[in-house]
Amino acid sequence: MSRDVAIARIHCPPRSAMQSGKAKTQSWTLEFAPSEARRLDPLTGWYGSGDTRAQLRISFSTREAAEAYARANGLEFEVEEPPKAMDIKPKVYAENFRYGRSENWTH
Question: What DSSP assignment string belongs to 34-53?
Fold first, then answer.
């Protein structure tokens, strides 16, 4: 009996567009790559497949915990590093009207 090896992706999920803080961005997620192509169901017109692993998403508090889980279960995995945080300087509306400003104010 041959055992197929599932390929998993470990990554930090991005924050939503409605989120400005850093809450819930420190967790790591393990997701499985699809093992078969999705196909159109002729009766309903919906796309689907027999791959139930594609529906599974496991959250971990650390990257090491996610990697340990994958190794313990014999999964091949690839790790995607989180994007570097951009340093954004907060802007103050009053700077538009500051005396002695070097550039012109245009609106």
Answer: PSS--EE-TTT--EE-S--G
